[in-house]
Amino acid sequence: MSQPSPQHPPAAAALTEPSGMLERLRGAVHQLAQAERLQRALFAIADLSGAHLSMRAMLEQLHAIVGTLMYARNLFLSLYDHDADTLEFIYFVDEAAVDLPPLGVRIPMADLHQSLTWHLVRGGATLRGSMSELARQLDGRLKALGAYAPDWLGVPLRDGAQVRGVLVVQSYDQGGRYGPEEQELLEFVASHVLTAVQRRQIRQDLERAVSAGTAELASANQALQAEVARRQRGERLQAALYRIAERANDPGPVQDFYRAVHHSVGELINARNFYIALLSEDGSELDFPYYVDENHVGTKSRPLGNGMTEYVLRNGQPLLATGDEIEALHQQGAISKSGPSSRSWVGVPLVCEGRALGVVAVQSYQADVTYTERDRDLLGFVSHQIASSLVRRRTTESLRLANAELEQRVATRTAELQEQIEVRRRVEAQLKHETLHDALTGLPNRSYLLERLDWLQSRLHRQPDQRFAVMFIDVDRFKLINDSMGHSAGDAVLHQIGRRLASVLRAPDMVARVGGDEFAVLVADAPAADPVVRIARRMLEVLDEPIDVGGKRLFASASIGISLCDRDKPNATDLLRNADTAMYRAKVNGRRRYELYDAHLHTDALQMLEIESALWLAVKERQFEPYFQPIVSLADGSVCGYEALVRWHHPTEGLLSPGEFLPVAEESGSIDAIDWQIYEAAAARMAQLVQTTGFAGYLSVNVAPRHFRQPGFGDRMLRLLSDAGLPPQRLCLEITEGALIEDPERTSVVLHELRAHGMALALDDFGTGYSSLGYLHRLPLRTLKIDRSFVQPLDTPPAAAGGETAAPNPTAAVVRAVLALAGSLGLNVVAEGIETPAQRQVLLDLGCTQGQGYLFGRPNPIGAPDVIVTEL
């Protein structure tokens, strides 16, 4: 516990403590009183916003409430319009001001520029102090408006972040009246004042609007009362017209519609006598489809005359006439009267699209029943509905008839279109089938095959175990069949081959024709080579069966190339090419067989392409040279003639024999150019040999069967000999049995033509083919050449059994038979392939006089030393 200070006695301390506490209590009491006043003021302001007071009275009470909180003898309240940038003083009390600003007038802010009120609005913050203090607080110049006030307090009226007005109190008699406490009170009260003013404005605007609306309603009420009366008069007319319009669209019987119209008109005017007259289609008669008259006069139809109805039709205008007016028209000759006279008559034309269709009319026979213009107008409204209904009904009937006719036409046309669509569908299906199928065999074509190949490859990528295979099939020696028997026979053979290939396969395998005599087969499920090989063997077997064409039995074989496909294989075109490469290898290896594709075949195919290109270049650069093998007399070895054989002087490979390039030349098509190049060079060198040495022998050249299929072969050969200077008598053409078999008639004609010019003809390789004797006596042959296969066994006679005399050599017997045959036909015989003296001696003993072979000389250029090469 603290001790009293020594400077003050205890008694003095006791006196000071209650005094300080008293001051604090007084301050607290003042604060409570101030808070109570503020609360009462706020309640009062809130009550004012809902009180039924004028704006001026409410503002005066607001002024009084603020005066209970602070000094507020001078106070003004203004509202700011942000959009228009104007300030409106709605309340102003100032004891020092002489000219008060006008209340309720919106003053542009530009007119208040730099004034305290302007700064209060623009700055949006409370301003307090004397004029000099305020001038120091504000940025920029302060413009003084009104009387000088020693103390000034202004608070912005805020609605959220926007300034909506200002509330200002000021003092003219002393400064310092407004401190922080007054500022805080006025700022607190300001928002409530703004709320009270806004509510009052809203209510005032509403009262003003209600007042204006009430005045308008009062004015409109008088007009409505008049309108109600008018509408009540027209309601019956409207209801009647509505019923008529409703019935006008009714598709029911027209008599029901006419009766409904009569009933509705009768509710509005006197219609005891009512009729509808219609002009006939040709305009010669009036029809009365509906006629009601108390005198029971009228008819269903009558010729067009000069009555009241016709008068309205002629003029095309409504007519309202009294009895006297009707009589006047009669006297003028405008109408003719018949039947009872009407005292009042109304007729209106039924007009549609400018044409009068008829008339609707009412009439009265009593003097007390007359019609007015309103009745005429009413009947005019009714006429529009009647005319519209008549046109609609006529149009409907016409449409019904037209629709029935159209339906019939549509039904007929639909049937035709359906038939056309069906035909088109069949045509499109046929076109699609033709697009993807071969026209001759009906098998899928190359496009279909490639699509199927792409699908199988896509499947293989998704399912690696779903491997497949491609076969390429070429018919062996098909050109021989086609050229010898004609294209129709060839087509029949192809059709049979395609059918047989397809018979071997099972779904989803597929055979397609991809070229003239080329087919391809897809084996969809080929996990290994074995099942594919079995299919290939089966195909070869079914093709071995004879084919009947035009009463002849033909035999066709095929060469098959197989390519097994997995994910690493190339695209569809390359797959076919690989199978084609394997097929070519099958042909090279002897035909009527199959080969599986591997990388070596691809290499071989590339080499073949290189050879093909080199062959064409060799033709262009004349790298082919004839080598000559002598044909000698077996008795003394003298040279009777030379056989020209082709050799290729390859720029890098050296001298190549025919077996190394002729198969490729035949496939590539360069063989003809090579043949003619050899013919030309051989003829030129033989002519030179004859000229320089006086050689008396002949030149022998080989002519392939294809040359006889070429038009003008004989003429070309004769021109070649003429250009070379070699007489035709010095040339011998060696032909094979194939030339005779392919087209014997054409070959016979060409051979007789050449024989007529002196050329000698020799049948090469006799005995290796069909050895048919039928053509030997028909063709102008001079020589038979015995094949080396009969000559080589002649020096190895079979051993005798058990020490007995050696048995005769069977080959010698064949040679003896050939010699005998040739002798009987007057033909010379040349034996080929003589390599040993023993063979020469046997031939001499058998009676053969001429031969050729390595024993006498190898093929060489004329005048060059021997070069040992292998003969073809």
Q: Any idea what the CATH architecture of the domain at 37-203 is? A: 2-Layer Sandwich
Strand content: 15-25%
Across the major sheet, the strand order is 20-21-23-24-25-26-27-28
Mean pLDDT: 83
**Terminal residue distance:** 147 Å
Helix content: 40-55%
How is the quaternary structure best described? single chain
Number of strands: 28
| Secondary structure tally, helices | 24
CATH superfamily of the domain at 37-203: GAF domain
Uncertain stretches? 1-16, 799-805, 864-872
Assign the CATH class of the domain at 37-203: Alpha Beta
Shape: elongated
- What is the fold-level CATH name, i.e. the topology of the domain at 37-203? Beta-Lactamase
CA gyration radius, whole angstroms: 66 Å
Structural class, judged by helices and strands?
A: alpha+beta
